[in-house]
Amino acid sequence: MSPAKTIKPTPAASQVAGLPLPATLYWDGEAVMILDQRLLPGKTLYMACRDMRQVIYCIKTLAVRGAPAIGVAAAMGISLAAEGLSAKTPAAFRRQLKAKIETMRKARPTAVNLGWACDRILALVALAPGDIETMRRMIRRTSQLMLDEDIAVNQAIGQNGAKLIRKKKATVLTHCNAGSLATGGYGTALAPVWAAVQAGKQIAVIADETRPLLQGARLTAWECVAMGVPVRVAVDSAVGVIMSRGMVDLVIVGADRIAANGDVANKVGTFNVALQAARHGVPFYVAAPLSTVDLDTISGKDIPIEERDPGEVTAFGTCRVAARGAGALNFAFDVTPADLVSAIITEKGVLRPPYGESLAKAKALAKK
Ligand code: MRU
């Protein structure tokens, strides 16, 4: 797999959804521009991806990460693949594209938005009556539509979630990064924070640092600083002492996949936060688009949990910290059981238990 060329941001990428934050990804002519999140907060640079392999490289290495952003990147990557196919007939084109889509589907296992994006393009191509060029154009247009839809959905999540922040002054604890960077733009878990601030509330954020790749310290803190929202970074294991001192009004986290029964897969450590929240009577909210809800997955036990390179745990960045000879466990995600989730904030409203019913109803509504 070859890394894509890194270039400086263009003016078009300098803000998204009216926020002073850079675009996570966008089309620039024939290239998919992906903000390289591995370099943040030090550098704001984009990779220009010109073929699907480069997009897959970005997804696997977490240059682009966060469930909704992975979904949009996948659709754009598939569009690049469609451009490169040599098929001479529509049937051959569909066959070759299907093989590419199945390769894309395997890039990361936990975020269901990846499979959701693949299925959406597959369905589009299956129904498309047109010739090869028409199909190519439709795929590209759909990938852009998915980006635009994601931003609109996230803004709705923000409005719905802001209603749960009842006090004029509140502190929100979050884990990992489910902000603008993790999506097409605006964010999921951070969206209610932005919306509440825009409505005149004073919101402070506590960002768990999120070992081992520090999405909280590097990305959430960076977004909050850019947005002018006061933020403090805490080590993941401090959540108990912080909550026991009454310093948190509510928790909002994102999700990589929500099973039909309301079990939630999210960045490893989320389950610990939920347990502490239950112990201390702090509401624990999950903010996610309905594309993250997977009714085909019955419960959290059925969610595939990504295991990553042990080297991410034995080192801190490039500096080895674990004793030589020690192995490591590197589960990238964990599952929070539904009974620890106070509510799920979606674009169609705030869903409450029993989640088996509320999720199914909201998904049916979203299909209309
Ligand atoms: O490994 P990552 O950085 O892709 O993990 C991201 C998360 O766990 C996010 O909380 C989740 O994808 C929701 S993003 C809106």
What do these coordinates show?
The chain is globular and about 65 Å long. Helix content is about 40%, strand content about 20%. The strands form four sheets. A seven-stranded mixed beta sheet has the order 7-6-5-8-11-16-17, sandwiched between helices. Strands 1-4-3-2 form a four-stranded antiparallel beta sheet, with helices on one face. With about 375 residues, it is an alpha/beta fold. The chain is built from eleven helices and 17 strands. The chain has helices spanning about 50-60, 65-85, 90-105, 110-125, 130-160, 190-200, 215-225, 240-245, 270-280, 310-315, 355-365; strands at about 5, 25-30, 30-35, 45-50, 170-175, 200-210, 230-235, 250-255, 255-260, 265, 285, 295, 315, 320, 335, 345, 350. The chain folds into two domains: about 5-155, Four Helix Bundle (Hemerythrin (Met), subunit A), CATH 1.20.120.420; about 160-365, Translation initiation factor eif-2b, domain 2 (Rossmann fold). 5-S-methyl-1-O-phosphono-5-thio-D-ribulose (MRU) binds near residues 62, 68, 111, 176 and 267.
Rounded Rg? 20 Å
Approximate shape:
globular
Low-confidence stretches: none
Highest CATH level, the class of the largest domain: Alpha Beta
Mean pLDDT: 95
Indicate the CATH architecture of the largest domain.
Answer: 3-Layer(aba) Sandwich
Helix content: 25-40%
The arrangement of helices and strands along the chain is EEEEHHHHHEHEHEHEEEHEEHEEEEEH
Estimated structural class: alpha/beta
